[in-house]
Design goal:
Elements lengths: L14 H7 L8 H14 L1 E7 L2 E9 L4 E10 L2 E11 L4 E4 L2 E6 L4 E7 L5 E6 L15 E15 L10 E4 L14 E15 L6 E8 L4 E7 L3 E2 L7 E13 L1 H6 L10 H5 L7
Length: 279
């Protein structure tokens, strides 16, 4: 197999280093990046998708508590190489987007989804599990998605009792001072902590933290490395963070497996209106 260099994937500004740190891996150079891709290749669940004369081979190395490492191999005729290796987190809560569009970069092993949440908030995120999905999913007018931000950095902000704190969920490329270095799916968020818990990477023993944050336009799951989190989280605290938004498209079987009972955010009448007699 011809392995394309990963040098371009480990930029000097430390972007990829910070992203892998959010799931508990230290990736400081090309060698450690390649080593992580090898682990994903050897230990990951295999999937693939065909695009004309191109085949993308996915490798999903599942750790624990939703932590994942994805590597993608690009194959075309006799040419095959590692196109990408990236951190991932398969989140708990389900959103849906409608309308939506999918943009694929096959040679880079990447795909981006852009869509609207109920209420009109736009989301742009890296699609992690393209190679796992039945193509029929993309014939629907809406997508069910599990969405989470991997934090470059996060900070607990001091807010005086009774003081109003504005929420934010904005693309980094639209903000002064962040636009130049931002990926198209980078966001700046700020909001109130609804829930949080500790997570440990079982391979590196790194201490991570899962946060569920009310950002106004969206309630978003965020994963951060404990050592990059400034301040101590608690329910009701305000947190500001820069995140790389990523997610997974869910099929019906996955959604059913996540069912935990009636969602109390909805009125009983909302469920009755969905019932229709077929005769």
């Amino acid at each position: 197999m011809n392995e394309r260099s990963f040098e371009s994937e480990v930029p000097g500004d430390g972007v990829m280093v910070e992203l892998f740190a959010s799931i508990g891996f230290e990736v400081a150079d090309e060698d450690s990046y390649n080593l992580l891709a090898e682990y994903a290749e050897n230990s990951g669940e295999r999937s693939r998708v065909h695009r004309g004369d191109v085949t993308l081979h996915g490798r999903c190395w599942k750790l624990a508590d939703g932590l994942e490492v994805w590597s993608i191999l690009y194959e075309r005729a006799a040419e095959i190489y590692y196109a990408d290796c990236r951190p991932a987190f398969r989140s708990r809560y389900v959103h849906h987007v409608q309308p939506w569009e999918l943009i694929e970069y096959d040679e880079d092993g990447e795909a981006i989804v852009r869509g609207l949440l109920p209420g009109g908030a736009e989301v742009i995120f890296e699609l992690q599990n393209l190679t796992e999905l039945n193509p029929c999913v993309f014939r629907e007018g809406y997508l069910h998605i599990a969405l989470a931000g991997l934090a470059y950095n996060a900070q607990v902000q001091a807010v005086a009792e009774g003081e109003f704190t504005s929420t934010r969920f904005e693309l980094a490329e639209r903000l002064p001072g962040l636009a130049e270095e931002a990926c198209e799916n980078d966001y700046f968020i700020r909001g109130r902590v609804l829930a949080w818990r500790d997570i440990q990477n079982p391979v590196t023993q790194s201490e991570l933290i899962w946060l569920y944050i009310d950002c106004g336009k969206i309630r978003l799951e965020v994963l951060a490395n404990r050592r990059t989190l400034g301040g101590r989280p608690q329910i009701g605290a305000t947190i500001a963070a820069s995140v790389w938004l990523q997610g997974h498209v869910l099929e019906e079987t996955e959604i059913e497996a996540r069912y935990e009972g009636v969602d109390r955010d909805f009125e009983p009448s909302d469920f009755w209106t969905r019932l229709r007699r077929g005769n």
